[in-house]
Design brief:
The protein is an alpha/beta fold and about 400 residues long. About 45% of the residues lie in helices and about 15% in strands. It has 15 helices and 13 strands. A seven-stranded mixed sheet has the order 3-9-8-7-6-4-5, sandwiched between helices. A three-stranded mixed sheet has the order 1-2-11. A three-stranded antiparallel sheet has the order 10-13-12.
Length: about 400
């Protein structure tokens, strides 16, 4: 007689283990528009969690653009881009994004994650090599795995170590160097000029995922390539419209030949329905705003510099951030989760981040400054961090 066991018992055990280790994620539900303040569980709280860098997620011009587009084009495209899903709005957005980024061409995807899953396997495969920063985003890691190319990691933001692993690797096919532009958990910036030199010396493709640099770095938020004045030298820029642009979607910008190849072989482009009409229209409105003025980007950086310096003065460890991302380093996950719970009680929404998003022992509260916050908002947030930090013995 066959004894049947519960097929999902192992999942229950794993979930119990996560809770015991303080690694179980409790997901908050937001009951209001995304903004500097949000409503959660009926409470209005200061929002330090979202990637809504420029406060565009609830911007009236984006909302109006989405409404008008619905009236003219409907809601959904109803197909993948290559069959019947390419609408004039998609073409216009790609043209505008290419102009904004100063590149030959651009192609849009349903998300930044999809953009990486489309791009990496289309450029390299079996017999090829990918050199990847050890702290690259999960979407890069998954794209690399899907490609079936050999994956060689180099130490985080270390061009010398990249040179070392290149010398130690037998390369018989194509090679790709890939890095995040701004690393989302630490807020530091990739040494792109040095990576370009290495790629150029070896005739390797160079790809940067600028998800957290779009709308943040460069003139008016044009990104890391503009920030370092490397126009025409970086082969592939991957970005997202779900962070600073305030909407949703991904973009790959760069050489025209690569963009054309992705239209033919980028699997999320070929096999997943196109971005919806209101999303595309809202993205176009975001480009309009960024091209018209640097005011929001300037405000974002001003807020970030003020918040970061005050946190450091209070004694908090804010890591090595060079951007508006401020990691408040706490070490162990249970402490980070307790810190987050206490902040919420004080009216501040700032989630704990632990393993596997960050390495064990490096749990933190990641504060996302935005242009939607006023100086009064930041003062309230700082007061809450100081109170909780002292109560939990993080600062004296």
């Amino acid at each position: 007689m066959v004894t049947r066991t519960d097929k999902t018992a192992w999942i229950e055990q794993e979930l119990a283990s996560l809770k015991e280790q303080g690694l179980f994620t409790h997901i908050r539900t937001i009951e209001s528009p995304m903004d500097g303040w949000v409503t959660i569980e009926g409470r209005r709280v200061l929002n330090f969690c979202a990637n809504n860098y420029l406060g565009l997620a609830n911007h009236p011009k984006l909302r109006e653009a989405a409404r008008k587009a619905i009236d003219e084009y409907g809601i959904g495209p109803g197909a993948v881009r290559t069959i019947a899903g390419t609408m004039s709005l998609h073409v216009e957005l790609e043209k505008r994004l290419a102009e904004f980024k100063g590149v030959e061409a651009a192609i849009t995807f349903q998300s930044g994650f999809n953009a990486n899953l489309a791009t990496i396997p289309a450029l390299v495969g079996r017999g090829d090599v990918i050199f990847s920063d050890e702290l690259n985003h999960a979407s890069i890691i998954d794209g690399c795995r899907l490609s079936r190319a050999q994956i060689v990691r180099y130490r985080h933001n270390d061009p010398d170590d990249l040179r070392r692993v290149i010398k130690e690797t037998e390369i018989t096919g194509r090679a790709l160097i890939v890095t995040d532009g701004v690393f989302s958990m630490d807020g530091d910036i990739a040494p792109l000029p040095e990576l370009y030199e290495i790629a150029d010396e070896n005739n390797f493709l160079l790809m940067v995922d600028d998800a957290h640099g779009e709308g943040v770095l460069g003139k008016g938020g044009r990104g890391i390539v503009d920030h370092f004045d490397l126009h025409g030298k970086v082969d592939i820029e991957v970005g997202t419209m779900s962070k600073a642009f305030g909407v949703v979607g991904g973009v790959v910008a760069g050489k025209k030949v690569i963009v054309e190849w992705l239209r033919q072989r980028g699997r999320p482009f070929l096999f997943s329905s196109a971005m919806t009409v209101p999303d595309v229209a809202a993205c176009l409105a975001a480009v309009d705003l960024l091209e018209a003025s640097t005011e929001l980007v300037d405000r974002l950086w001003s807020n970030a510099e003020m918040f970061k310096s005050r946190m450091q003065e209070m004694g908090f460890d804010t890591g090595f951030s060079q951007t508006p991302i401020v990691p408040v380093m706490l070490g162990e996950a249970p402490l980070a989760q307790e810190f987050s719970r206490r902040l919420f009680e004080e009216g501040v929404f700032a989630m704990a981040i632990g393993y596997p998003t960050v390495p064990r022992g490096k749990a933190r509260i990641r504060v996302m400054n935005t242009a939607a916050h006023t100086r009064e908002d930041l003062e309230k947030g700082l007061a809450a961090f100081e109170k909780v930090g002292k109560e939990l013995g993080v600062i004296s």
